[in-house]
Amino acid sequence: MSSLTHPLLTAFRASKPAFGAWLTLPGFLSVRTAAAASPHLSWVVIDCEHGATPLQPGAAESVHAIAGLGALAPSTIVRIPATGACADGSAGWQIKYVLDAGARGVLVPMVSTREQAASVVAASRFPPQGTRGFGSPFTQLAWGSGVTPSEYLASANDAVLVLVQIETRGGVDNLEEILGVPGLDGVFIGPYDLSLSLGFPAPAPDPHPEVEKVIQRILAAAHAKGKKCAIYCTSGKQSAKRAQEGFDMINVTSDAGALSEGIMKNLAEAAGAPEGSKDFGY
Predict the structure, then answer these.
(1) Known catalytic residue: 50?
(2) How large is the C-alpha radius of gyration of the chain?
(3) Cys-Cys crosslink for 83: which of 61, 110, 169, 219, Cβ 3.0 to 4.6 Å?
């Protein structure tokens, strides 16, 4: 077993639900403040797909900012911007950037086929399990004081998590084949794009009942294949429900969402006015 570990990996191995937060705002202090906000935070996603953090050097700076919190820092997963046909290896350079930066895992959106998932896994694993190259002088620095390049190289294939998003009709249709890819740790349900791709409105805040049936099918299929299943939620109440249902990795809130909701709530209280309503979104 790997000598390297982190909170999300520990939760996965213990089969305990891991709660996280979505980070869309760029900047060292922003991500570090969010990552230090709660002892219940097992992981964060640095969103380089729809968020404002650039892949390079923004993701690397964010990873190291969070790693600076010490051994109890939440696991940093980076969602790369690649979408569509990544079976040709076109997403490999993005995966290389974030893993060389020291991310504890990579999340790839819009994966719809076994070939795409297999390409993602190959780019994330060192030989003989994959094709990832070795050479960054910065990677092991993000994994803690005293971690050597040789230790990282020996342990990364077990410690780094590889997750793909199921959020397209193709992903649902090819779910069993995707889940059968060796080296894939789990699937992450994107309820917004999944709903739209199936012809239903986006969750507000809960998915349409027909989409919910698909979500439950994905959860059951993932567990049947020995894979973890994650989902994006927008509140603590919604997240607690998903934890009871058996989801392994649950997003609770986002930095931008929590910021706007906190300001709106406190100003409404100060003004003696109703809070108002928030449209669906991150």
Answers:
(1) yes
(2) 18
(3) 110
- Using the predicted structure, report yes or no on whether residue 84 has a pLDDT greater than 90: no
Helix pair angle (28-35, 58-67), 10° resolution: 40
Cα 144 to Cα 39, 44, 64, 105, 199: the distances in Å are: 19, 18, 10, 16, 46
128-151 pLDDT, tens digit each = 999 999 999 999 999 998 899 999
Rounded Cα distance, 215 and 25, in Å: 28
Cβ atoms of 190 and 207 closer than 8 Å: no
Catalytic residue among 6, 40, 50, 64: 50
The answer to whether residues 111 and 120 touch, using CB atoms and an 8 Å cutoff, is yes
β 105-108/161-166 pair status: parallel
What is the DSSP annotation of 69-111?
Answer: T-TTSPEEEEE----S--TTSTTHHHHHHHHHTT-SEEEE---
**257 contact partners, CB below 8 Å, separation of at least 6:** 22, 234, 281, 282
Please report where in the chains the tokens 């719809």 appear, as a residue: 112
Give first-to-last CA distance, the chain, whole Å. Answer: 36
Cα dihedral sign for 93, 133, 77, 53?
negative
Mean pLDDT in residue range 232-261: 97
Question: Mapping DSSP to helix (H, G, I), strand (E, B) and coil, where does residue 159 land?
Answer: helix
Is residue 152 within 8 A of residue 5, CB to CB? The reply is: no
pTM check: above 0.85: yes
The token duo for 81 is 């911007």
DSSP strand E in the chain: where? 18-23, 43-47, 75-79, 105-108, 161-166, 186-189, 228-232, 249-254
CB 256 within 8 A of CB 274: no
